[in-house]
Design goal:
Number of helices: 64
Helix content: 55-70%
Organism: Manacus vitellinus
Subcellular location: Nucleus
Shape: globular
Protein name: Sister chromatid cohesion protein PDS5 A
Keywords: Cell cycle, Cell division, Mitosis, Nucleus, Repeat
Strand order of the largest sheet: 1-2
GO biological process, one term: cell division
Strand content: under 5%
């Protein structure tokens, strides 16, 4: 090969370096890019050279030496090092068999350098991978590393090479890479003088289970390497085990503690590797150390029991010695021997005869765990193949159904039941097998004659559990054929298990923290929580178990594995057995502590749900999707089966998320996402959200398919789908900011209030995006809120609502514009919850907007274009929004008392559904301790709810909340520092303040109003005073007395406001004194009053005045309760700047023709029937809102003189009113309009004020109340108060002395028009 002349470059040693044509000098004075460029040409030159090119070899020898200089070997540039390594490998090939490098140190540096470059093989997607592969191929083909045999410290190079190759091998490498690695390593082993212990360790370490699980490809590489070099390496392996097992020199290797694991793996690879090792194991079986015998038994159990093993026949002495361990004195050794038997029976039926006699003895073992495992061993083999167990072995199981321990009996019964089901019910092995186990059914039925409580409770419960799980797995329709209660029970079972698992996990986390007083207190609280799930002496046992956990690190690790998300059912079984084995005491046959621990372990162990179970469920659902299931034959449609299956999987995705992580499962869920059923798609998205945290890294194909679907659902799906899609993107993708921006930007630009039906989904998506990623979207969202949400959407009414008089409409009848406004309000809340700060004062503006919506009854624009049912929706949304913001501390601080009171009055809304839904939301937030304690005071207003069932529901909510708070304080010692926000009794000052500002409470000396206040106070105090815990009665009395020494912080300088506050305090003191004889004791501590509602007590201020007279006290305590009026309005007049207090409408303010034209279908009903009205929203809200009736509550005092008089007055007019109803029924829809027109004519400007909403109306004169009850239709809730008939004098004649006063009140001029300043 002729080369054109090149300019020679002098080397450092004086020799001239010739570079290939076109290659300039390579020095440290040029850039890295230029070095790489020139080296590539050098690499190309050496690649094209062969060993016969003597001229070129001589010419480029200086260059070859130059490439081994420090400049190249220590070059920081990765590409430079790779190219130099390729050159050096080619140089070894070209100059073979003699290398051009004579210095041993230089050779060592070169090969260590080349070895380091082989790490680049790890990344197969690297652009340079082909060069790394070329380097490996060249080294393997030439066997370049054999040169190192001449070096004294060649072992260091080989060890580094082996470790590098084992560390870089992965599943992305093809067979060629593995083949070259094997060629390279096997040549070193087979052509060397021997394998040193360090080099052997670098191979064997890949067989250890921990490394094997970490890198399966490295294990496979080591496995093939050992097979290929078995003849050479076997003496080295024998020497290693001899040093460790016989001579006890564990220091010879770091792998000494893993000898039994290594023996197992080496035996599985090739038994010839252990020809000299097996006799040593017989020696170890006879060791005096029980733990050592146990380790050898575990090892030999795996060797004898493996499927293809013939060790028992090849080495009979060792087999007989092993069988002798069934009678070992050490319990764990016997236990391990019994566990081995099932594998041996299944894999080697010919050995069953040897095992039977030993199992017979062990079935009577004094140790319960061993007897239990004998049953498991036999049943496991029998379930595999009934022919594997003879009648004698089945007889052992039959005997154990009468065992003295219920755990053994349970296992025997469950095992026999499984055999019977398999071979008799399913006839899986023919008639002979069925006849062999036909006796089982009789034996199982006989068990119920036993009198043991364990049999009656524990075993039957376990039978039910197993049957439920079995049905769960075998039902093709998943839970579609289960009734809702059964589905709920199944779901609750998993949720309770998951909750208990979380408690145990938190307990283990506390064990990892340093010991401190706070840690001990937290641990004690967690132990009490766990102990509360069990009866008897559970607390003592749980404390003892916790102490054992603290002392035994291995036990903690077993428990951590048991509750880890990746724990399979099989692993759980092993963990439970291992923990039980460690806690068992052979000398103590009855151990209640162990029983409790087992019960705990059984409850937290994943005994039926793991990845395999989820996969089976998904396969069943796939059959329904593909139409191959027998759903129709079972009487359930495929769509129903799919929906039910997904709902079930959704619940499991919360409790077992890691079990879903497989491509097959996610492919099935993607099919569900493409279905037209909205519920199915929504459930599928939620499952992805709960389980897809590793999709991005492990399943890129699923990720690429899922992203566009989620985008589509977030933009054009249903609102629920949009919410779940946004949360799913945020939960499982690392580039969530980019993904959410791709949704946020087009949606924010396309908002159009003129098409409200297309607004709902975008508003949902935008709201959740701004909540989840506030740092990115809070600022852009602010302009959307200001310019579109408030200005364009909420402050405009584009459509006119249907004036049907209904207070509530079904969801499908709500106008799109109102639905959009509701979502807009939710968007505001989510936006603020995302920011979690009020630096821009956006929260103040939002709260003013929500308050204005409540004050305006839901009609923010006051254009009267919105229907009453839509107004109800908006009031509910506004009240719920304030309550949601209050859950965030930074917003709770800025909510004014006036705004809190407006929010509270929603629970007295005129619309039944508003009250119901608001109360549910309130209870849900309180029970999770999300809301401040003051919001629990809202439930006191439920005393005025006219519906008996609603009052009962509110009372149950109070009981639940108070119970949870007290239990939380008991179980969390740290909670004592936050008693002001947790102690239920501290709700009293909030309740007193709220009732003092009740818009119905206008006259502090009015007995009727005071009776209202007393009923509300007692509604709360009755629950609080059920128990006098820690002298709480005296504490509440002290709080009430202390309030009288302060002023109302809301209106500190208004005498009337403070008078009302002190009056309520006196009513509270009156109630507490009358209901408790223990309230006069000393208070356990001085109560702290909330400064937001009460001023600090003044030093010289003394308030010993009684604000209610003695006569009033008697009336409050002994008089009959005031009749509860039907809810009329929601928003009460509050003393706020810029707002006009609402005028209370009286009977004479409404048109005189109203009552005469109302229907009277309930004219003949008694007062008692009217009191127990049904809790149905339709009957309450579907009527015209002008028809309001006062309803007497069911609980009344014995004095009924006024009721008798009222009834007599009513009977006289019932017939006449009934006739009028018949004549005017057809014009009912126009009554409201006519009434308002006539009222304006008669009362003048006073009716310009809006009527009050949200409370039961005050009772009218007694006669009028009774008259309305008899003449009108059944009680309904409206916004406007029913008026007395002004044209008929009977309406006043039957009334009491208060009627003229009410007429006078109606004549008072109205206040100025209210103005709402949203920007203030």
């Amino acid at each position: 090969m002729d080369f054109p002349a090149t300019q020679p470059k002098p080397a450092a040693d004086g020799k001239i370096i010739y570079y290939p044509p076109g290659v300039k000098e390579i020095t440290d004075k040029i850039t890295n890019d230029e070095v790489v460029k020139r080296l590539k040409m050098v690499v190309k030159t050496f690649m094209d050279m062969d060993q016969d090119s003597e001229d070129e070899k001589q010419q480029y020898l200086p260059l070859a030496l130059h490439l081994a200089s420090e400049f190249f070997l220590r070059n920081p540039n990765k590409d430079v090092r790779l190219l130099v390594a390729c050159c050096l490998a080619d140089i070894f090939r070209i100059y073979a068999p003699e290398a051009p490098y004579t210095s041993h140190d230089k050779l060592k540096d070169i090969f260590l350098f080349i070895t380091r470059q082989l790490k680049g093989l790890e990344d197969t997607k690297s652009p340079q991978f082909n060069r790394y592969f070329y380097l490996l191929e060249n080294l393997a083909w030439v066997k370049s590393y054999n040169i190192c045999f001449e070096l004294e410290d060649c072992n260091e190079i080989f060890i580094q090479l082996f470790r590098t190759l084992f560390s870089v091998i992965n599943n992305s490498h093809n067979q060629k890479v593995q083949m070259h690695m094997l060629d390279l390593m096997s040549s070193i082993i087979m052509e060397g003088d021997g394998v040193t212990q360090e080099l052997l360790d670098s191979i064997l370490i890949n067989l250890i289970p921990a490394h094997k699980n970490l890198n399966k490809q490295a294990f496979d590489l080591a496995k093939v390497l050992l097979k290929r070099t078995v003849q050479t390496i076997e003496p080295c392996i024998a020497n290693f085990f001899n040093q460790v097992l016989v001579l006890g020199k564990s220091s010879v290797s770091d792998l000494s503690e893993h000898v039994f694991d290594l023996i197992q793996e080496l035996f599985a690879i090739d038994p010839h590797l252990l020809l000299s090792v097996m006799p040593q194991l017989e020696f170890k079986l006879k060791s005096n150390d029980g733990e050592e015998r146990l380790a050898v038994v575990r090892l030999l159990a795996k060797l004898f029991g493996s499927k293809d093993s013939d060790l028992a026949t090849q080495n009979r002495p060792l087999w007989q010695c092993f069988l002798g361990r069934f009678n070992d004195i050490h319990v764990p050794v016997r236990l391990e021997s019994v566990k081995f038997a099932s594998h041996c029976l299944m894999n080697h039926p010919d050995l069953a005869k040897d095992l039977t006699e030993y199992l017979k003895v062990r079935s009577h073992d004094p140790e319960e765990a061993i007897r239990h495992d004998v049953i498991v061993t036999i049943i496991t083999a029998g379930k595999r193949d009934l022919s594997l167990v003879n009648d004698q072995l089945l007889g052992f199981v039959r005997e154990r159904t009468l065992d003295k321990r219920w755990r053994v009996r349970k296992e025997a019964m469950m095992g026999l039941a499984q055999l019977y089901k398999k071979y008799c019910l399913h006839a899986e092995a023919g008639k002979d097998a069925a006849e062999k186990v036909s006796w089982i059914k009789d034996k199982l039925l006989h068990i119920y004659y036993q009198n043991s409580i364990d049999d009656n409770l524990s075993e039957r419960y376990h039978c039910f559990w197993i049957c439920t799980v079995f049905f769960f797995f075998t039902c093709r329709l998943l839970d579609a054929s289960l009734d809702p209660n059964a589905v709920k029970a199944l779901n609750e079972m998993w949720k309770c298990q998951n909750m208990l698992r979380s408690h145990v996990r938190e307990l283990l986390d506390l064990h990892k923290q340093p010991t401190s007083e706070a840690n001990s207190a937290a641990m004690f609280g967690k132990l009490m929580t766990i102990a509360s799930k069990y009866p008897g002496k559970a607390q003592d046992f749980v404390k003892k178990f916790n102490q054992v956990l603290g002392d035994d690190e291995k036990l903690r690790s077993q428990l951590e594995l048991l509750i880890s998300p990746t724990c399979s059912c099989k692993q759980a079984d092993v963990c439970v057995r291992e923990i039980a084995r460690k806690l068992a005491n052979p000398k103590q046959p009855t151990n209640p502590f162990l029983e409790m621990v087992k019960f705990l372990l059984e409850r937290i162990a994943p005994v039926h749900i793991d990845s395999e179970a989820i996969s089976a469920l998904v396969k069943l659902m796939n059959k329904s999707i593909e139409g191959t299931a027998d759903d129709e034959e079972e009487g359930v449609s495929p769509d129903t089966a799919i929906r039910a299956g997904l709902e079930l999987l959704k619940v499991l995705s919360f409790t077992h998320p890691t079990s879903f992580h497989s491509a097959e499962t996610y492919e099935s869920l993607l099919q569900c996402l493409r279905m037209e059923d909205d519920k199915v798609a929504e459930a599928a998205i939620q499952i992805f959200r709960n389980t897809g945290h590793k999709i991005e890294t492990d399943l890129p194909q699923i990720r690429s398919t899922l992203i566009p679907i989620l985008h589509q659902k977030a933009k054009r799906g249903t609102p629920h789908q949009a919410k779940q899609a946004v949360h799913c993107i945020h939960a499982i993708f690392s580039n969530k900011e980019v993904q959410l921006a791709q949704i946020f930007e087009p949606l924010s630009r396309s908002l159009n209030a003129d098409v409200p039906e297309q607004l709902i989904t975008p508003l949902v998506s935008l709201g959740h995006i701004s909540m989840l990623a506030p740092d990115q979207f809070a600022s852009p969202m602010k302009s959307v809120v200001a310019n579109f949400i408030v200005k364009d959407l909420l402050m405009n009414d584009r459509s006119t609502g249907e004036k049907n008089g209904k207070l509530w409409s079904p969801d499908e009848e709500v106008s799109p514009e109102v639905l959009a406004k509701v979502q807009a309000i939710k968007l505001l809340v989510r936006w603020l919850l995302g920011m979690k700060n009020n630096q821009s004062k956006s929260a103040n503006s939002t709260l003013r907007l929500l308050s204005a919506m409540l004050v305006s009854e839901g009609d923010l624009t006051e254009q009267k274009r919105i229907s009453k049912s839509d107004m109800s929706r908006l009031r509910l949304a506004a009240g719920s929004a304030i309550m949601k913001l209050a859950q965030e501390p930074c917003y709770h601080e800025i909510i004014t008392p006036e705004q809190f009171q407006l929010c509270a009055l929603v629970i007295n809304d005129e619309c039944y559904q508003v009250r119901q839904i608001f109360a549910q939301k309130l209870h849900k937030a309180l029970v999770k301790l999300l809301l401040p304690l003051e919001y629990m005071a809202i439930f006191a207003l439920c005393a005025k709810d006219p519906v008996k069932e609603r009052r009962a529901h509110a009372r149950q909510c109070l009981l639940k909340n108070i119970s949870i708070r007290r239990e939380y304080i008991k179980q969390n010692p740290m909670a004592n520092e936050k008693l002001l926000s947790l102690l239920p009794e501290y709700v009293v000052p909030y309740m007193i303040h709220l009732l003092a500002h009740d818009p119905d409470f206008t006259k502090p000396q009015d007995v009727d109003q005071l009776r209202d206040v007393k009923e509300c106070l007692w509604f709360m105090l009755e629950v609080l005073m059920t128990k006098n815990e820690n002298n709480s009665h005296a504490f509440m009395k002290k709080m009430s007395e202390n309030i009288k020494l302060t002023r109302d912080a809301q209106s500190p300088d208004e005498p009337k406001a403070n008078e009302k506050l002190y009056t309520v305090c006196d009513v509270a003191l009156c109630v507490i004194n009358s209901k408790s004889a223990l309230c006069n004791a000393d208070s356990p501590k001085d109560p702290v009053l909330p400064t937001k509602f009460f001023t600090q007590p003044e030093k010289d201020f003394c308030n010993d005045r009684n604000y209610i007279s003695e006569e009033t006290r008697v009336l409050l305590l002994t008089g009959k309760p005031k009749p509860t009026g039907v809810l009329g309005t929601v928003n009460k007049p509050l003393s706020a700047t810029g707002r006009r207090p609402y005028i209370r409408t009286t009977g004479s303010e409404t048109g005189s023709s109203v009552n005469s034209e109302l229907s009277a279908s309930a004219g003949n009903r008694s007062r008692e029937q009217s009191s127990d009205i049904s809790e149905t929203g339709v009957s309450e809200n579907d009527e015209n809102p002008v028809r309001i009736i006062s309803v007497t509550p069911a609980k009344t005092e014995p004095v009924k003189n006024k009721e008798i008089n009222s009834d007599q007055a009513t009977q006289g007019n019932s017939t006449e009113r009934g006739k009028k109803r018949t004549a005017t029924a057809s014009g009912t829809e126009n009554i409201h309009q006519k009434t308002e027109e006539k009222s304006v004519d008669e009362t003048g400007p006073s009716l310009a004020a809006k009527t009050r909403r949200g409370r039961p109306t005050k009772p009218e004169p007694q006669g009028t109340t009774a008259k309305n009850e008899e003449t009108n239709k059944p009680p309904v809730r409206g916004r406007k108060r029913a008026a007395a008939n002004q044209e008929s004098p009977g309406s006043l004649e039957a009334g009491n002395a208060k009627a003229p006063k009410q007429q006078d009140t109606a004549k008072k001029p109205a206040a100025a028009q209210r103005q709402i300043d949203l920007q203030r």
